[in-house]
Amino acid sequence: MSNDDTITWREMLVSTTEIVGDRVIAKWLCENAAGVDGDEWLDIVDDKVTQHCGMHIDSMMRRYLAGEPLQYVLGRWAFRHLDLMVDQRVLIPRPETEQLVDLVLGVVRSAQSQELRIADLGTGTGAIGLSLLHELPLGSARVWLTDASVDAADVARANLAGLGRAAIYGQISVGSWYNALPEKLRGSLNVIASNPPYIDHDDQEVEDKVRDWEPHLALFAEENGLAALRVIVFGAATWLRKGGILALEIGHRQSQAVSQLCSDAGLTNVEIHLDAAHRERFITARAGFDE
């Protein structure tokens, strides 16, 4: 690792690749340190690396080699069409959750409503709610993004600020699940979407890196991982309008238990959806609607 300002970024990429053992990751680190993206790299590849940039890439490499997740090291990560700020205050956005957004979009794009009302409960980075704001027609939806963690809400707020014009239709609030929502929304929501904590504390499938680095509040739940899901499901019948949809990401072994919770809560049209790995990863259900 070197802070030598006599080498070019091309040479720095070679050196970084040798150290981290992966050229793609090395290029991401170099781009991040240089403050460029994509094709901009070609414009600076033969420029000299400044001392400040050299120190920055050294720091990132040390963190990465110490086991810190790449997303935290970079401080950002792509989710659908967004470039989100990500750090240890929030869960790292997963590709599976992008599919949850697709499920919601598939329903609401055909909805006949003057303005959609959407709640993203346990928002973390804001990935779900902000993607919906970004991808739906401007002004067609108002989204409430909630989290019990003040720190996570601060990250979501920063990401909301970077959304542009659509940001005026989003609101961040702190609180436990429905307690964070304004009472006026009760019985009026078109969509409740959530990727809540659903992992049992003793789940042996959890990778050490996930358990060591990501916030446990966003990962683990009591009752074999069902505690948060139970609260969300049983509140949905009260907070959704008639025909409104609940869309949840769940553990791949929880589909039958969560389906039963939905039925017990009086929700209808309960459907299980597969993720890209063909595992039962999502549940959708309706409030007061059966066809």
Please describe what this structure looks like.
The protein has 291 residues and is α/β, with parallel strands linked by helices. It has 2 domains: 9-66, no CATH class; 93-287, Vaccinia Virus protein VP39 (Rossmann fold). It is 40% helix and 21% strand. The protein has helices at 9-20, 23-34, 40-44, 51-65, 70-74, 95-108, 127-135, 150-161, 208-213, 222-225, 227-239, 255-264, and strands at residues 76-79, 82-85, 116-121, 141-147, 170-174, 189-194, 199-200, 220-221, 240-249, 267-274, 280-287. It has a 7-stranded mixed sheet with strand order 5-4-3-6-9-11-10, with helices on both faces. A two-stranded antiparallel sheet has the order 1-2. The longest helix is centred in the first third of the chain and has 15 residues, at 51-65. The protein is globular, with a radius of gyration of 21 Å. The mean pLDDT is 93.
Key traits:
Rossmann fold, 2 domains
Summarize the structure.
The protein is an alpha/beta fold and 291 residues long.
Layout: helices, strands, pairs:
Blueprint: H1 9-20, H2 23-34, H3 40-44, H4 51-65, H5 70-74, E1 76-79, E2 82-85, H6 95-108, E3 116-121, H7 127-135, E4 141-147, H8 150-161, E5 170-174, E6 189-194, E7 199-200, H9 208-213, E8 220-221, H10 222-225, H11 227-239, E9 240-249, H12 255-264, E10 267-274, E11 280-287
Parallel strand pairs: 3-4, 3-6, 4-5, 6-9, 7-8
Antiparallel strand pairs: 1-2, 9-11, 10-11
Helix pairs in contact: 1-2, 2-4, 6-7, 11-12
